[in-house]
Hints:
605 residues, alpha/beta, DNA polymerase, domain 1, Rossmann fold, 12 strands, 11% strand, DNA-binding, mismatched DNA binding
Amino acid sequence: xxxxxxxxxxxxxxxxxxxxxxxxxxxxxxxxxxxxxxxxxxxxxxxxxxxxxxxxxxxxxxxxxxxxxxxxxxxxxxxxxxxxxxxxxxxxxxxxxxxxxxxxxxxxxxxxxxxxxxxxxxxxxxxxxxxxxxxxxxxxxxxxxxxxxxxxxxxxxxxxxxxxxxxxxxxxxxxxxxxxxxxxxxxxxxxxxxxxxxxxxxxxxxxxxxxxxxxxxxxxxxxxxxxxxxxxxxxxxxxxxxxxxxxxxxxxxxxxxxxxxxxxxxxxxxxxxxxxxxxxxxxxxxxxxxxxxxxxxxxxxxxxxxxxxxxxxxxxxxxxxxxxxxxxxxxxxxxxxxxxxxxxxxxxxxxxxxxxxxxxxxxxxxxxxxxxxxxxxxxxxxxxxxxxxxxxxxxxxxxxxxxxxxxxxxxxxxxxxxxxxxxxxxxxxxxxxxxxxxxxxxxxxxxxxxxxxxxxxxxxxxxxxxxxxxxxxxxxxxxxxxxxxxxxxxxxxxxxxxxxxxxxxxxxxxxxxxxxxxxxxxxxxxxxxxxxxxxxxxxxxxxxxxxxxxxxxxxxxxxxxxxxxxxxxxxxxxxxxxxxxxxxxxxxxxxxxxxxxxxxxxxxx
Length: 605
């Protein structure tokens, strides 16, 4: 396959890859999703990631129909990568894309759940050993030796014993390894460093290397050797020859015969004699080192070759375990659950006790699980006492394709849309979702549009060009649109928003639309409803108290009196307080005073 046929590979990228690693290896790297190979070939990590996402999940990337949907996708990948146990696992996470078929989604979920079960079964010490093994593997560069050593460490940590022996999980190949064979292979691989035999592997080779180093030092300082012997009273002739032989034998740690074999028979003087002897001795030892090293290396390579099948299996297993362990640690950290995929004619996004991952990651204390659904769900009755709010209608209607979400400012409406988007994208990547239960259809397009406070015709046009084409294509589309009125005047916004709701229903899409213009949208299509989020007062610290759980079929209140009450209470001086009191008269002085009384606030506070 030609490199230019891959998305994002132009002439310059092709030339860089070809010059660095060659066409064949570049194609192999792209097909296998190898970010590291492409970055080492000179591509930026961002470009390499974009190329691999398109090469390995191009259709899935089309699910992200808007910039805001792509932002949520990237935010999710960032959260998951924080739990990666190796750089290679992080690279594989970066190229995860939404899928369009439930079979690979379920297969990935099976693997994540299997590894998660093993991870949660390990005690703290065992988990630490596993993470240490991957850290060493990562630091060593993820070659054959680090992989085999990591496999041994995983076996020693008990991951195979903790795994379900009948499970077809990423741990299964580890259980099939010949432990003795890979232990010997690990030792043999450890003895080979960049093709050379490492020090300490073979005693004879170590001795020869030490002798060679000593002979080289003697050769470099031959004149000093002669001078030392003469200072010791040794002169020319047989006495010098014998003293020189003994000195070299002692310093180089070689036999008398090896030194004698290096001595010339026709040296003209002591300098010629010493220089020639030491040069020949060094050459002889260098050849002996080379011969011995090749013999030892051949034995080591033979040991590795005998275990080749197990070594290759260990390399593949360690990379897979690292990848799925990273996903499993993410799922475990946020207590994620497996979604139910809904296929056929029924379209739905539904979740019980859903949580927003971005807020959880930020340790936001305001995280309140919410139950919500659009489309035809099968959640069953939701226990009104199981979650916050304890509403009389805790179960979402099961036949509305569109919901219009209304309510208080800072009431979590945008967060609700983002949470639904997170659930859908995680589910379509074959990953668990942040909820107690969830039902999700597979969508061809997810249209998420956050509120953008830019009030001009250009923004309106670009927004419509972004959100209308996906729903008009006739494929399964989820519309999540936040405060459309923020980009045009209220009258026109209500008309356009009503048109979007109608279009969503007519094209058999699902949608949730956040707005403050619910009253202007009547009458809504038959399969659309209005939900409301309510603020309930102020805390003693004058924080707005909001029940983030939407009330179904009810228009939410924007509660300006709570905001005005907080302003009255927080005024810096009497003049400012008097000004806010004027606003309080406008929204209802009695309501403001009651709010402050409920918050247990008084002017002396």
